[in-house]
Amino acid sequence: MASDGVVDLVAIMTPKPGKMDRCLEILEQATHLVREYEPGALRYHMFVEMEGDQRGKDVVWIEQYENQAAWEAHTNGKAYEFMSKIMPEEDILATAPVLKFLKPMAGWASK
Length: 111
Fold this sequence. Notes:
Layout: E1 7-13, H1 20-37, E2 41-51, E3 54-65, H2 68-75, H3 78-89, E4 98-102
Antiparallel strand pairs: 1-3, 1-4, 2-3
Helix pairs in contact: 1-3
């Protein structure tokens, strides 16, 4: 966590073979829930890993929350609840999501 209290993280999800399209549908629905119900979510951006011109095996999120309370609100919010329910029900993920909390060191978001 940065000294100003902002929480930055990367979340990595690996769908089972044949489940990527459904995983992306679920996660896209989650983005709408985060945008609507989580004012403390500053960034919630989904990427798909690429291997050359082909889609890879991982979905990667870059997330930012205004503070620890906003991160905790996310983990107790509608999107998290939705994903935590439907992903196991539909046996979507090959492994548990990996969360990597980050500390900014250098660079910029826009120029």
